[in-house]
Amino acid sequence: QVQLAESGGGLVQAGGSLRVSCAASGSFFKINDLGWHRQAPGKQRELVAVISSGGSINYADSVKGRFTISRDNAKNTVYLQMNSLKPEDTAVYFCNARGVVTMNGMYDYWGQGTQVTVAS
Question: Could you report the per-residue pLDDT of 68-90, keeping only the tens digit for each?
Answer without folding.
Answer: 999 999 999 999 999 999 999 99
